[in-house]
Amino acid sequence: MDFRDSPSEAAFRDEVRGWLADHLTDEFAELGGRGGPADETAWETRVEWEKLLGKDRWLGMAWPEEYGGRAAGFTEQVIFNEEYAKANAPARLSLFGEGLFAPTLLAYGTDDQKRRFLPKIQAVEELWCQGYSEPGAGSDLANVQTKAVLDGEQWVVNGQKVWTTLAHRAQWCFCVTRTEPGSHGHHGLSYLLVPMDQPGVEVRPLRQMTGTAEFNEVFFSDARTDAHNVLGEVDDGWKVAMATLGFERGTAFLSQQLGFARELEDLITLAQKRGATADPIVRQELADSFVGVQIMKFNGMRMLTGLVRSGTLGPEASIGKLYWSTWHRQLGERGIRALGADGMELPTGPGYDLDEQHRIFLFSRAETIYAGSSEIQRNIIGERVLGLPREPREKRSNE
Amino acid sequence: MNFAFSDEQEQLRDAVRKFLDAKSPEAEVRRLMETTEGYDPAVWTQMAQELGLQSLHIPEAHGGQGFSFVELGIVLEEMGRVLLCAPYFSTVCLAANAILNVGTDAQQGELLPGIAAGETIATLAFTEPNGKWDASGITMEAKGSGDATTLSGSKMFVIDGHTANTIVVVARQAGTSGEDGIGFYVVDADAKGLTRTPLATMDQTRKQARLDFDGVTATPLGDPGAGWPALSKTLDQAAVCLANEMVGGAQRVLDMSVEYAKVRVQFGRPIGSFQAIKHKCADMLLEVESGKSAAYYAAWAAAEDNEELPVVASLAKAYCSDAYFHAAAENIQIHGGIGFTWEHPAHLYFKRAKSSEILLGDATYHRELLAQRIGI
Lengths: 399, 376
What we know:
The structure holds two protein chains of two kinds. By secondary structure, chain A is an alpha+beta fold. Chain A has twelve helices and eight strands. In chain A, the strands form two sheets. Chain A has a four-stranded mixed β-sheet with strand order 1-4-5-8. A four-stranded antiparallel β-sheet of chain A has the order 2-3-7-6, with no helix packed on it. In chain A, 40% of the residues are buried. The chains are: A alpha+beta, B alpha+beta.
């Protein structure tokens, strides 16, 4: 047990710091940490910045060298993300491509598929979106109804996806579709890769309770993709889709903690300025949030050690998702309490622009729902970590 | 960065678990908790002679093995798991640490070898009937100086105060207040003027006593009057130890709940298949694992004796107190009626969880302390 960097970790940290010091200048430095994976602040500048990351193989650092990566291990990835957050560098754009699709592609794709898609992700020429949820398939993802039928050399896709982040910016969608006619549940699904820029794909923004529209609805009407754009076997896409969810629940959380810690620091400063820290209840809440964000760090380090040893992230990743989303929601509520009566007003004036406290308060309600709701995470923890029996399933209405 | 125990540390855990499973089964816990002394002297001696548990983190120069708080944390986690009835926390986590933090080398040489050998039971008497855990609670005044020092007044909630041979007492110099004038004094259990009264504890597995001092002769330990930093550090170390003990108990009640939820059938299926029960267990696991992360990290900070210790000690005590109590309470609920009976062990953990939560300051106390320590 030792929480200091090993000599090789320290050397890698120095390399990252050096690169960031050299490159995070001028318009990129001015951006600060603004924007998020679902936020389009200064989009063009962030694309340019992301391209710099790709050029020097920080984007794709985990990939094997033969596919343009650095073959960086989990520890290096976390060190990079820590230094990136400390440097207050721009929020990344490539969560879906680099973070979710690429690891799935590396695990299940053919060599041709890897050589076709990975370089374009690294060059920031192709962004990806995730075609999972549907109006009738939220927590019950296996109830996907979007259909794809092979027509000669192409799949023809029909159906509707929802909550699709950045669909209006993405060139490609990795999309769970029903390819076996008449199949039910997780049987007969395929993991299709569908180009977004075609007449058969219509993207409509979904305005949320935050007033912004980070999510979209995507309508497929005879949309087409080439027959070979399937990841894994046809009709056996469920396990591929689940692998992506594993990446979604897991590795990203390991490096989020620093951003959360910064939000808490901002809230403490704000509460002090307003004199709210004289209130014993506010003091309790802020200290409790501090406990929570520190434990998030300790949990992350423990999980990272396990990951380095075993090479895979188990269902324990659900603990991380449940933990951070619950913590963040509570931070939002505490931020509003610290504002007192001013919590009722938006200091930004008309137009429903949100300041940080109201943004966290409102947006965090999505976080305990997306990427597997807290209830789904508790089912995963209960069944797959603790080994509790599954709930008997009702027969599906369409079966 | 490496957040894992070494192979040697895992072996220590295995050895301690085997020993405790043999020496401290539930029947033995129930037998000892009904006694006034609350421990088995034969097991206490075996702990010292066969496993060297009392000497674990005492320096080799004073008869110990020179291990760290990480190893100590492992031992405490295992003890918490089985609710071991023994004066270990008082002797090793309170008294030995106080002596290490404040005693001169000569005093350490005099007091520690007996503890390390399992011959001395010791405790730290710092709390008083006012029930405060900070410097303001210490009102007992020391009169005179050097060999002529005497103590008068009362100490409460003294863990194993009625069975200890050596009592380290915290008192203050006349006319001082707050963190000024705090001093440590050693008192023999059979000293004239000392009356020791066992308390009727809700948690019968950890004994406490009231100590009344009437002009008791005491020997100053270290520099009397400048003892607050050493007391503060001792309490931080003890909080870290207690946090590790608590996660051991919390894991045990989670295991009990999960085992029961798998076999107890109602409405034609195991109750663990209902989300109402499954989600409780999932939340318990999240909190138990998070508590372990905090307790282990805090043990490392205590081992390093680094500047993080005060913050992580309060953090771990606050979080693990809440996590253990929540898990112990849910364990009763998940067991239903049987969990409310005297014969089922759920109440033993529930009571240990609550008294451990209060001991050394509850979660609310430690969150406020933490707020001060991080500059809120």
